[in-house]
Design goal:
The chain has 194 residues and is of the alpha/beta class. It contains 6 helices and 7 strands; from the N terminus they run ββααβαβαβαβαβ. The strands form 2 sheets. It has a 5-stranded mixed beta sheet, with helices on one face. It is globular, with a radius of gyration of 18 Å.
Length: 194
């Protein structure tokens, strides 16, 4: 899960955590997507830059192998919890962590896609008593056919430096090595260019 928060009244708080879920990368040889999931953008922009629009950026890390993530986030935020917690794994256990790692009246955003059989169990009184907002987003609730071309235009105007988020462009057969580099913190983002 990615936790991100900023508050003028309190210190800036960011963290990311995971919960022992098997995260080894897996790739399909082919993927079938609906035409509506494809968005045409200006061909003048590099594919590895345009590809960033569907991705996120983490600011800090809490390693849940070493510490309990909710406690670590509460400690990082002076006991308050994060204003906004983005759950990017799509699992009930990480969503529950996100729920309890947020500030009272904070927001939990579900970005990770759960499987149809997954169920979430939370005491309803906790949901009521903590207030705030529980949301789910797909592409940040943007409309890719409208927003991606706009973001690409901003990039081409020099107003959105997407290239700064790309460390390297790789081929498909270099993915395993790229994941190792990412795991060791040697790269920010590797983009597969076919």
């Amino acid at each position: 899960m990615i936790i991100s928060a900023a508050s003028e009244a309190r210190k800036t708080r960011t963290a990311a955590c995971s919960s022992g879920v098997d995260r080894r990368p897996r790739f399909a040889e082919k993927t079938l997507v609906a035409a509506g999931q494809c968005t045409k953008v200006d061909p003048a922009v590099a594919p590895q830059v345009a590809g960033l629009l569907g991705c996120g950026v983490m600011a800090g890390i809490v390693n849940s192998k070493d510490t309990e993530p909710v406690e670590a986030i509460l400690e990082l935020t002076g006991g308050f919890g994060a204003d906004v917690v983005i759950e990017a794994v799509g699992r009930p256990e990480t969503y529950k962590q996100a729920f309890y790692a947020r500030d009272l009246a904070g927001t939990v955003v579900l970005v990770g896609v759960p499987t149809p059989d997954m169920m979430l169990e939370l005491p309803l009184l906790d949901v009521f008593g903590r207030g705030g907002a529980l949301k789910s987003f797909w592409y940040g609730d943007c409309l890719p056919s409208r927003d991606f071309p706009l973001l690409i235009d901003l990039h081409l105007q020099g107003r959105l430096p997407l290239e700064k988020f790309v460390t390297e462009a790789i081929q498909l057969d270099e993915v395993e090595a790229a994941f190792q580099r990412m795991h060791h913190g040697d790269v920010l983002r590797s983009v597969v260019v076919l």
